[in-house]
Design goal:
- Helix 4 crosses helix 5 (130-141).
- Strands 1, 2, 3, 4, 5, 6, 7, 8 and 9 form a nine-stranded mixed sheet that branches.
- It is built from 13 helices and nine strands.
- By secondary structure, it is α/β, with parallel strands linked by helices.
- Mean pLDDT is 92; it is low at 1-14.
- Helix content is 45%, strand content 17%.
- The N and C termini lie far apart (51 Å).
Length: 302
């Protein structure tokens, strides 16, 4: 009987767009809690972002997949109780786009222009994975703007890039960029296996819906963005400028992309507290959402 019900459930789910339904549900929940969606446009770019809450400002920067809503929905709701939260879709992700050259510095410039537009001069920031590189670049070049800094599963400027060669070999790709940028939905399972500690086989209909929603756009820009990130050097010498800033580095102990030792090394270089989460991979929001959210809320509330 259970198998029959499960079969009917799969048939029902495959007949509707589960990803779109979930996104609409998240939008309604955020909006009910006064976290609303906005656009900011200049001649060079358009940034879509979420903003809500009251109090000290926290900027949330997502990683190299999905968008702000998918990554930060739970954290936006939790942090908005005591803070003003701002979560942009980074350029070439979600609904944000640009005519600029795809690189980390232009991401930083666009973010600073958005914050200037919102008349925000001091703030806290959290960046996850790729968003962590952006948060670090922003903080190193504007340390006086930053009240608190949180980096999640992003190894910053002390990372041994040779480790990525081993990751690419393990997943049978030429370059790590191939794990994040692909032109067929079937490769989404490979990315999920890389990011998550808890393994699940994604149904083919769900792979296609996820791919069409979050991955099937801006391929050339994202390739350029990933290649530029691998070439760009964020000065390690500047790390001492961050020592006065209250900082936290969060890591999934089982991260298959960036090893735990790289997280510990980076945290030491910026004099940050280090918090690791057991049975957790690269995407803590997937594996341990409650522990991840609690760690962030506790950090920013103190």
């Amino acid at each position: 009987m259970f198998k029959v019900r499960f079969l009917f459930l799969l048939i029902f789910l495959s007949a509707c767009n589960v990803v779109k339904v979930n996104s609409n549900f998240s939008t309604r929940k955020l909006t009910r809690n006064s976290i609303k969606n906005f656009d900011y446009s200049t001649p060079d770019f358009q940034v879509n972002y979420w903003k809500g809450g009251e109090g000290p400002v926290i900027v949330l920067l997502h990683g190299f997949a999905g968008n702000a809503q998918l990554t930060w929905k739970n954290e936006l709701l939790a942090l908005a109780k005591n803070h003003t939260v701002i979560a942009p879709d980074l350029l070439w992700f979600g609904k944000s786009k640009a005519t600029l050259e795809p690189n980390l510095n232009n991401q930083t410039i666009a973010l600073k222009q958005l914050l200037n537009h919102l008349k925000i001069d001091t703030f806290s920031v959290i960046g996850q994975s790729y968003g962590g590189f952006l948060a670090l670049n922003l903080a190193l070049n504007n340390p006086s703007f930053i009240r608190q800094l949180c980096i999640a599963n992003s190894p910053g400027n002390t990372f041994n890039k040779e480790e990525l060669t081993g990751v690419a070999k393990k997943y049978n790709v030429e370059n790590v960029a191939d794990l994040f940028i692909f032109k067929e939905a079937k490769y989404l399972q490979r990315l999920y296996d890389l990011a998550a500690y808890k393994k699940h086989n994604l149904p083919s209909f769900l792979e296609k819906q996820l791919y069409d929603t979050y991955f099937n756009q801006h391929h050339l820009a994202l390739i350029a963005l990933m290649k530029s990130l691998q070439k760009e050097e964020i000065s390690v010498a500047k790390n001492s400028t961050l020592w006065p800033i209250k900082s936290l580095v969060i890591w999934g102990e089982n991260d298959a992309l960036f090893s735990l030792k790289e997280g510990e090394k980076f945290a030491a270089s910026i004099h940050a507290d280090f918090y690791s989460i057991q049975k957790c991979g690269h995407a803590a929001q997937l594996d341990q959402p409650k522990l991840f959210s609690k760690a962030i809320v506790d950090f920013f509330n103190h």
